[in-house]
Amino acid sequence: MSYIALIASASIVVQIVMLILVLASVLSWYFIFERAKVMGRFRNASDHFEERFWSGMDLTQLFRQVNAAPDPDSGTEAVFRAGFKEFTRARQQPDMDPDTTMTSIQRAMRVAVNKEEDKLDKHLTFLATVGSITPYIGLFGTVWGIMGAFRGLAMTSQATLATVAPGIAEALIATAMGLFAAIPAVIAYNKFSNTATNLISLYDTFAEEFSSILHRQVYALSRKNQARREAGADGRNESAQSAGTEAQRV
Fold first, then answer.
1. What is the C-alpha to C-alpha distance for residues 227 and 178, in angstroms, rounded to an integer?
2. Which residues form the signal peptide (predicted)?
């Protein structure tokens, strides 16, 4: 008997199980191709931005360029935009506290990394679910089919292999379909999880390196502001002393 004939002659419960497994397999393959394409774009976009970042370009100019045309696939660019935007907002304040500013910058970059992590983990839960439950769904269909085969066997007067074999064969197809759906999903989930972990590590490393750069700029800017305030205070004191001296002469 052909596989199509075995599926057509299966009970309605086994056919429903097979339909569920086919749908799960089709969706998992769709997400496998979609995630492979997305992960590749994310890796290439992040590598391209890091080349621009470490090329020696002025950070303010780079921020203007990426802010005007942001790349949604570049996680490192998103981290850079979040951190530099917070730095730009903080340096406009004359009484900027460097420790508070660095805390705000690091928090903004951490939020950006978390958002990128959500993008990378999209649909991976579905692949993990397919890989873990489809063998059991297929096993359920097999058990149900074998139960039906033995019930039919009990109603016959003479049991032969030709009598019971078709029922067992159509039941075992459910297990085969469950494994066919589960194995690619598990392999893809492990592959994409490892890729996502590597990309998140790349984003975290970039955030730490960029944080060190901004740390130096924040404290240098804080020292300049402090020097300006002290110079202004000295100027006011000298003006007050001059005015006092002039008053005494009068």
1. 72
2. none
DSSP type of residue 23: H
Whole-number Å distance between alpha carbons of 17 and 14: 5
CA quadruple 232, 238, 240, 241: dihedral, nearest 10: 160
How confident is the model at residue 170, as a pLDDT?
Answer: 75
Name the residue with tokens 């990128």: 116
Cα–Cα distance between 65 and 249 in angstroms, integer? 61
Rg (C-alpha) for the chain, rounded Å, is: 33
**Given this model, what pLDDT does residue 154 score?**
66
Alpha-carbon torsion (228, 234, 235, 240), positive or negative: positive
Single-letter residue type at 128: A
Buried b (16+ CB within 10 A) or exposed e, 14-47: bbebbebbeebbebbeebbeebeebbeebbebbe
On whether the CB atoms of residues 199 and 42 are closer than 8 A, the answer is: yes
- CB atoms under 10 Å from CB of 144, counted, come to 18
DSSP output for 172-220: HHHHHHHHHHHHHHHHHHHHHHHHHHHHHHHHHHHHHHHHHHHHHHHHH
Q: How far apart are CA 4 and CA 64, in angstroms?
A: 61
Q: How many domains are there within the chain?
A: 1
| Dihedral sign (CA 180, 185, 186, 187) | positive
> What distance in Å separates the CA atoms of residue 217 and residue 95, rounded to the nearest whole number?
15
Print the domain residue range for 134: 3-249
Residues in the chain where the model's pLDDT stays below 50: 234, 240, 243-244, 246-250
